[in-house]
Design a protein that fits this description.
Radius of gyration: 21 Å
Strand order of the largest sheet: 2-1-3-4-8-9
Shape: globular
Structural class: alpha/beta
Largest sheet: 6 strands, parallel
Mean pLDDT: 90
Distance between the termini: 41 Å
Number of strands: 9
Helix content: 40-55%
Number of domains: 1
Strand content: 15-25%
Low-confidence stretches: 1-26
Number of helices: 12
Length: 256
């Protein structure tokens, strides 16, 4: 009787000792925190968010103020603090500057850059954009207000920002855009989280806002796993299923 009682226990201990339960005990990351870029807010991520939510993920979108890089990083960390476990941190365009700083938070397991800037320490968005401009880009696409905020010329949005969206959608982005402080674009990045956290970069091959070759260069420097999508600067809106799938891969492959 005693022997038959002990056998299952011994077998269980052997499984644990060999690591057989490790996969079952390791919980898959379910928190996805998304940081939008400049000029467009988080509402454009609705289709990605709906797909991730349907697949069992908890999605939170940061609506950062775009008043300075430090304040946007702080807004992102504020949201990260509310998560109930490890998180995948996603950033689009200027949002890549933000997640590079906020990604140092202890509960960030992995970074996903979507047509985004991936700065090294001491680099600004202006530095990076100027290092490899978009070929044949129209000048004066970005305009400034008297009090130091930037916005996209509404007439330029369909071509320069959202060329693969229906015209009505691109025009709505133009009408609903969020202005960004010049300070946010000229601020120098701190120590980059991608040096210590795994990262994925989604390259928008037809991007007219950030040179795709610049995106590739930054991803290579960061050691990011790279996916290329035939998309404009807003692949989250034009290819939401593809973007959601890549984010889910980041959640499944990130260290727990």
């Amino acid at each position: 009787m005693k022997k038959s009682y002990l056998l299952p226990l011994v077998a269980s201990l052997a499984v644990v000792a060999s690591g057989g339960f490790s996969a079952g005990l390791a919980a898959e990351i379910k928190n996805i925190v998304i940081v939008h870029g400049a000029f467009a807010d988080g509402s454009g991520w609705r289709a990605v968010s709906d797909t991730l939510t349907k697949d069992g993920y908890k999605v939170t979108l940061v609506q950062q103020p775009l008043t300075s890089l430090d304040e946007d990083v702080a807004a992102t960390k504020r949201v990260l603090d509310l998560q109930d476990g490890p998180s995948i941190l996603v950033g689009h365009s200027y949002g890549g500057m933000v997640i590079t700083g906020a990604g140092s938070a202890a509960n960030v397991a992995s970074l996903v850059y979507v047509a985004a800037f991936q700065p090294d320490k001491g680099e600004s968005l202006v530095d990076l954009a100027g290092s490899k401009p978009v070929e044949n880009a129209k000048k004066d696409t970005i305009k400034a207000t008297p009090d130091g905020f930037l916005y996209l010329d509404p007439a330029a949005v369909p071509e320069a920002f959202a060329a693969d969206l229906p015209l009505a959608e691109a025009e709505f982005i133009a009408r609903s855009q969020v202005f960004a402080s010049q300070k946010a674009f000229t601020a120098k990045s701190g120590e980059p989280a991608w040096k210590t956290k795994p990262s994925i970069a989604i390259i928008a091959k037809s991007d007219r806002s950030i040179n795709p070759d610049l995106q590739r260069d930054m991803a290579k420097r960061a050691g990011s796993k790279v996916y290329e999508l035939e998309a404009s600067h807003v692949p989250y809106a034009s290819k939401p299923q593809d973007v959601a799938k890549i984010i889910e891969e980041a959640a499944k492959s990130a260290p727990k």
